[in-house]
Known about the structure:
heterodimer, A: alpha+beta, 5-stranded antiparallel beta sheet, about 30% strand, B: 5-stranded mixed beta sheet
Amino acid sequence: MKNKNEMKLIFPSNPENERLARIAVSAFISELGPTIAEIAEIKTAVSEAVTNCIVHAYREKPGMITLTVKATSSKVHIRITDRGCGIDDVKRAMEPLYTSRPEEERAGLGFAVMESFTDRMTVKSAPKKGTTVTLIKNICC
Amino acid sequence: MLNLTEPIIIEAENDTVEVFLSGDIDHKNAAGLRNDIDYAVERHKPKVLNLNFAKVEFMDSSGIGLIMGRYKKLSALGGRLVLTETSGTIKKVMKIAGIEKLAEII
Lengths: 141, 106
């Protein structure tokens, strides 16, 4: 399917950029005519992915996050990439309520929320190299 | 500097502390909210902590961490947690977390 529009955003792993990322994505996809619920779900999924980069990939240290969004007439493809520590065991990291940072009141639900609020999620990670999360959401219009 | 998070309002009456949350509850804001709520809980030692979500515009799983942490704190004090005026995607996030097992959701 031919790409209708695309966007690339590169930003540092500052917590204030969690909001920037989800607002930028919601503004970008608004042209597709999504429902309010679809926008809210995409914003939440993006916020989870970016927070994972800040909290887990870079462990609150400086690093860069790349967000790319491609929109076709009925689908949104979102990719969030970091060059942080990577995930040793992706399967375990995706288990609901698993967190490597329980002392900081992390719920361990980031991937569960991303999975629930999108139609497809893939996670590719290499230890010490980084992680790429791809989220695909169908827009029902 | 523009402050995008509105301050929370905390009211204490008898054995209840009610917290009116607002704005965005994400990783950036959760720590500040946690400190404000815990200060009120430690001061009043309520039997009921009521978190009101009517003016919350956004919440991701960082908010779930905040709720779970307050549940543990209240349980240790012999109190209970009540969540009110939840709706839409925020309610869905709570459902994914199974929060209804920890707190009464009204």
